[in-house]
Design brief:
The complex is a heterodimer of chains A (289) and B (410). Helices cover 74% and strands 0% of the residues of chain A. With 289 residues, chain A is mostly helical. In chain A, helix 3 runs parallel beside helix 6, helix 6 packs parallel to helix 7 and helix 8 crosses helix 9. Chain B folds into two domains: 202 residues, Periplasmic binding protein-like II (D-Maltodextrin-Binding Protein, domain 2); 186 residues, Periplasmic binding protein-like II (D-Maltodextrin-Binding Protein, domain 2, 3-Layer(aba) Sandwich). Chain B has 17 helices and eleven strands. In chain B, the strands form three sheets. In chain B, strands 2-1-3-11-6 form a five-stranded mixed beta sheet, with helices on both faces. Chain B is globular. The relative contact order of chain B is 0.16. Classes of the chains: A mainly alpha (289), B alpha/beta (410). At the A-B interface, helix 5 of A face helix 2, strand 2 and helix 3 of B.
Chain lengths: 289, 410
Amino acid sequence: MRTEVLAVKPVRSARGGWHWALYLLLVLVSLPFFLPLLWLFVSAFKSSGAIFGSPFQFGAGGLRWTNFEQVFRDYPFARQYLNSVYIAALSVPITVGLAAVAGYAFARIRFPGRNAVFLLSLLAMMVPSELTAVPQFVLFSRLGLVNTHVPVILLQIFSATGAFTVFLMRQHFITLPRELEDAGRVDGLNSPGVFWYIMLPLSRPALATAAIFAVLNSWNDYFNPLIYLSRETLLTLPLALGRFTDPLGGVYWNLTLAASVLVALPVLLAFLLAQRQFIESLAASGTKG
Amino acid sequence: MNRSVFAIGLCVLLAVPVASAQKVNLRFSTWAGGEGLTLLQQLAQEYNAQTPNVGVTVEVTPFADYASKVAVQLASGSGPDVGWLAEQSVPSFLKSGSLKDLSALTGDPAFNLADFPVSALSLWKQGKGVYGVPFSNSPQVLFYNKDLFKQAGVSTPLQQYAKGGWDYAAFRSSAKTVKDRTGAFGARIMRVDTKAWNSGTLGVLWSNGGNVYDSNLKCAINSPASVRAFQLMYDMTFGDGSVPRPGDQTTFQGGRLGMYIDNVSFSAQLKDAAFKWGVAPLPKGTTGRVTQLGQAGYVVFARSSRPNEAQAFLKFLASPAVMARTAKFFPPPRKSVLTSKTYLGSNPAIPAAELKTALVNQLGSARVFKTSDNFLRANDLFASGIERLYQPGANIGNVLNDICKGVDGL
């Protein structure tokens, strides 16, 4: 018995050593990701001149909150922020709701051409958006919807993001045991009832995954707003970041970086608060790197 | 019931264009930012007040995506009516027939096209047609850090210019002295982004007999004079160490650069600079003192459904009175505005005499960079070649030959 205890000790200390080595390696690997972020946050408080000086010194101007004031005072950034928030708030629930309904239908309801329709919907994910951009633009232009948020919202819901979330939900519903559905029917539920009272409550992790993807895609979308939005007050945040320039287009880096912090902050906070769910969601979707 | 709903819906849809036909809505596209955009929006409102039947909506696109977005808009039949166009986009827009001929303005005494120097209009003319009117005619100037020059004990570029000795030899030795005595870089010729390699570089090339294209738009960046000019910049970078190497992010705003070549609108970035600075003409080379003339102009797009109203709005924007106001941000091409006291005193950061010496007096020899219509693709080859050129031990002649092989093969 005593020899067993003695035998265990060196093994534990060796494991401890490995852990330290592993942590060190992880810290080193995280540096290339962490340092640019740190540079961004520090530079957001600097004057334009001090940004490209020593990376982590504030220079003569000290800590400048005025960058943040100026972003809101001299530019319609608050309005542009609101645009991004409301577009995400509108498109995400619709994307996820439609994905849940469509995913359930594709997984559980038998109807003629089910697989063909499913494949057709997946095409939205497989065809590069650049290929469909021109005909889509002509369509929305003829409908008089250019320079409105309608195309940006619709293309979030019905393009690659929408198709991916439908696919995600379908794969999830396929894995749920059919017996649960049968039990519901025995208790008198019809198809919508089974979906609402049994399937949806069991799908919270998958719905969270779909929502996270939809939020990120909507928040970071540059391409569609670039094509459809041309008025300063209609722009969303990714485009707004390119607008802190002098009259001929030279970039005001101090303002751009302050605004970038404000754009990145909600995503970073959301990640810190919901870190576990986020990683579980990525693992569940099979897209974790 | 359904039929009547459909019919009412159809009527409503048809009625909308009829009702809106009363007022013409023009779309004006720009990449302007900050105060420049505010001024343009104000001008659009003023125009609307003057001509109540014409409304103008100002549309913005970041500069990097501007030309491609407008081209896509025009191709899909929903382009703007009036817009800004940067000099490098002019050849491709002209080739595709996207610009309206504005020759009607030539005979308009109120517009007085003769007020624009011939050189300012050359980029915008094709055959007998005039396809745009510049609003910004900005020769590159040399910004210098007065504090660093004082610390190094070297006469400033403006002082050396006044004495008549401001040439590339003086430029090189001043940069080296600043580097040796202050530790800061003496000069930055090219911008940080190598894709914008031509800014700064062209002044050195042209003043020393070099070129990028010949008169037939064949690549000439490997000519003996061009090689000599690149050798000078290379030696300053790797021999003297007075010019930062590509990839080095040192900027003039940071106060650790003695001299920097850019357009005068760069002064807007120096509002909160913690050092004293000034502007001077570029140095003189073996074949003269030639600086790059940056241009941007107003154009009417050929597919505008309201070409007459669009041209009238352009006439308003490029009129002497309005150009005198936009001159606060963009050096005006109109001679009458350029030489006015109002313009020379319009930039509080630059004294009138300095602006006259560094900018107005250099316009006579300033040159627009005329490019081929495939310049977007060619520029990738130029930029990657320039990156290879600024490497220790690079063979300048060979790299420039390679660039020309690629560019002429496009």
